[in-house]
Amino acid sequence: METKYEAVKQEIKERLAAGNIRPGEKLPSIRTASALWNCSINTAIRAYQELEKEHLIYSVPKSGYYAVLRSQESARRMEEHIDFSAACPDPEVMPYKDFQHCLNRAIELYREQLFTYCDPQGFSSLRRELEKHLAHSQVFAHPSRICVVSGAQQALHLLASMPFPNGKSAVLVEQPTFHGMLRSLRLLGVTALGIARTAAGIDLDELERHFRNNPIKFFYTVPRYHNPLGTSYAAEEKKQIARLAERYGVFVVEDDYLADMETKAKADPIYSYDSAGQVIYVKSFSKIMLPGLRLAAVVLPPSLLETFRLFKASADSSTSVLSQAALELYLNCGMYDRHAAMVRERYQARMEALDAACRRHLDKGLGFRYVAAHGGIFTTIVLPEGIAAPDMIAALQQRHVRVFSTEQNYLPSFASDNGLRLSIIQTDAAEIDRGMALMAEVAGALAQKREMDRRRVIDWR
């Protein structure tokens, strides 16, 4: 049931949205608001304070509250803006209120444990809860082998920097791959080797040659909803990767950052096929809920556990205990599963909209190449021959469409695919369709300009 202060808050929000309260205009005083909405002064104060937290109004001491200023031009640009570059969850799907409840409850239950150092491996009750949560993805691990980290990026950085029991030092990465991993390898000075990955997967014979002939300490892979390709490995490929890792003593770092976006019940991770303790499983929570919490889980084989604990403790004494305790309650009460189901459904619909928009606008003989991604949040579009990614990005930016080049996802020694990574995480169906229409339009204009420039050169000669 809606409380009085929420009703007052909603009424003011509607007036702001409708333009009945203009940007910069002073709002009714607290006393006037109390009379206007037939509520107590405390209720009016609370409604104004909540609106201020949402940055819709601001207070001036001894003067009152004012609507936040926004120029007509900036508002128009925000309405026109289409963001295919974002990697943070859509603000509209973030579970602010639910997680706030879990934070408050965590303080009540664990107040004596929350604001001190804890085990670098993670809050013990959260690791027990993670044991149950991970089992749903066919990742079975005792809490003693689960480590909570400050985001998946921290886990990848620590794994890249620490020694491995196989005594090898190079890291094999798919090409393309997650740019955050490439950045860590570069900063750490780690030798990185690449193996091509396409929509069809990877060449398993080539993978075996790398494992047999090169000093690979681990193979970094994103088997599910690859970043940036958006594709997933088939079950047989995952089994073969696990077998090759066992045969050659190479570890596999499995980045399962979108495990909760999976729509196929039998799409098990590589970890589920590992019988030799060669697979390190990394699970992120950033794309489902609140990335600013910086929480992820790593399942480690016994041979790596103590070294990882040591490196984790030297990087930060412990991951935020308050965030960990709140996540434990969020998982335990079923809120996480319900939220994940809602996000999965929403993002799935957007990926379907992207596939339809690509077929509608890009299949017009322009020369685009793309693979329909059937889930997740990313896909890659390879540009027509003769159109450079920087030119396309700049032209789209002028039309208020943001995209990223896939060049950042390649090692310097690998030729990039002249592609664009598209994310649907902060778009809707209408924006997706309009964005693809603009992409086709811009590509046509760039191709026409290229042809005109070619003719000028011929005429000049």
Automatic annotation (TrEMBL):
The lineage of its organism: Bacteria, Bacillati, Bacillota, Bacilli, Bacillales. Pfam families: Aminotran_1_2, GntR. SUPFAM superfamilies: PLP-dependent transferases (SSF53383), Winged helix' DNA-binding domain (SSF46785). The keyword Transcription regulation applies. InterPro entries: Aminotransferase_I/II_large (IPR004839), HTH_trans_reg/aminotransferase (IPR051446), PyrdxlP-dep_Trfase (IPR015424), PyrdxlP-dep_Trfase_major (IPR015421), Tscrpt_reg_HTH_GntR (IPR000524), WH-like_DNA-bd_sf (IPR036388), WH_DNA-bd_sf (IPR036390). The keyword DNA-binding applies. GO terms for molecular function: DNA binding; DNA-binding transcription factor activity; pyridoxal phosphate binding; transaminase activity. The gene is ycxD. Its cofactor is pyridoxal 5'-phosphate. Residues 2-70 form the HTH gntR-type domain. This is HTH-type transcriptional regulator YcxD. In the C-terminal section; belongs to the class-I pyridoxal-phosphate-dependent aminotransferase family. Keywords: Aminotransferase, DNA-binding, Pyridoxal phosphate, Transcription, Transcription regulation, Transferase. Gene3D superfamilies: Type I PLP-dependent aspartate aminotransferase-like (Major domain) (3.40.640.10), Winged helix-like DNA-binding domain superfamily/Winged helix DNA-binding domain (1.10.10.10). It comes from Brevibacillus agri. Signal peptide: none annotated. It comes from the Bacteria.
